[in-house]
Specification:
The complex is a heterodimer of chains A (123) and B (152).
Chain A (H helix, E strand, L loop, with lengths): L1 H9 L4 E5 L2 H7 L3 E4 L14 H17 L5 E4 L9 H4 L8 H18 L9
Parallel strand pairs in A: 1-2, 2-3
Chain B lengths: L1 H9 L27 E6 L18 E4 L30 H9 L5 E2 L2 E4 L6 H19 L3 E5 L2
Parallel strand pairs in B: 1-3, 1-4, 1-5
Antiparallel strand pairs in B: 2-4
């Protein structure tokens, strides 16, 4: 999505990204970014929390109009209810090494079967 | 990114993914007051029927009407934290409802007629040369002045 933002901006259309993968977005470099420190999947706020989602979108609109330079990042003032989520995501459990290797093997087989020209990046 | 590298190595991938990085970042100003701006929403979710995948398995940009969005776009094909959360609430990643309320309050003029779904691709080239121009074209067709991008 960061590449999309860059293309749109290069063609005169301003953008703002709302996202939780701060390192990836800032590594790429985008004009405007509202960072939400949530698990990947709910960049705009926890499910069914319209109050938080509204504030996050309002922040994005404000950054859209007020930012004066690229690489403008603002952080939403919200934390995920369960603080242990960071330790769970993408962890590699040594006891499951064989299981993970098999999972990877199945993924590669599945991808090879559906993608002869090699373009998708499905999880 | 380091955690992702380690995870994919554990899955048996021999080469680390190379994330895009640039020294220069383009910047476009909003050329009208926010209250007069039409804003488009973009997501990385897929249509519920995955109808944006062609017979070769290639995924394409897709669009939907903000007045009649699918209740449950397909999200299982992108990486998100499936242990800690869920995507059953579309508003948590495609915020049509709260944006519509903000527009009704005069914060901005309104949503563009369509939202757009962007495939998450391994290939930077495909995103830059195929998908990005397609998105730009669709935004212009809708008269969008700016876009809010919400990657899962």
């Amino acid at each position: 999505m960061s590449l999309i933002a860059r293309h749109l901006e290069s063609n005169g259309l301003p953008t703002v990204i709302i996202g939780s993968a701060r390192d990836v977005v800032e590594h790429c470099g985008v004009p405007r970014f509202v960072f939400t420190a949530f698990p990947l999947g709910n960049p705009c706020g926890p499910p069914y929390r319209r109050d938080i989602q509204r504030t996050v979108v309002a922040m994005a609109l404000d950054v859209l109009s007020s930012a004066t330079k690229s690489r403008t990042t603002v952080t939403a003032p919200f934390a995920w209810e369960d603080p242990d989520w960071r330790g769970r995501y993408g962890r590699v459990d040594p006891a499951k090494r064989e299981e993970l290797l098999e999972l990877g093997r199945q993924r590669r087989l599945r991808r090879a079967a559906m993608r002869p020209r090699g373009t998708t990046n499905e999880a | 990114m380091e955690r992702t590298r380690l995870y994919y190595r554990a899955l048996g991938y021999e080469s680390d993914y190379v994330w895009a990085t640039f020294a220069d970042v383009p910047f476009a100003r909003l050329h009208k007051p926010l209250a007069e701006a039409k804003i488009a929403l973009l997501t990385t979710a897929s249509p519920p029927d995955r109808g944006n995948v062609d017979s070769s398995g290639v995924r394409h940009v897709w669009s939907g009407l903000v007045v009649d969005p699918p209740e449950r776009p397909f999200t299982d094909n992108v990486a998100w934290d499936k242990e800690s959360t869920h995507t059953r609430d579309r508003g948590s990643y495609l915020p049509i409802e709260v944006a519509t309320v903000l527009a009704s309050e005069g914060v901005f003029a309104g949503l563009a007629a369509h939202f757009h779904g962007i495939p998450t691709e391994y290939s930077h080239r495909k995103t830059l040369t195929v998908d990005a121009p397609q998105v730009l074209s669709r935004l212009r067709a809708d008269g969008a002045d700016a876009a809010i991008l919400c990657p899962l």
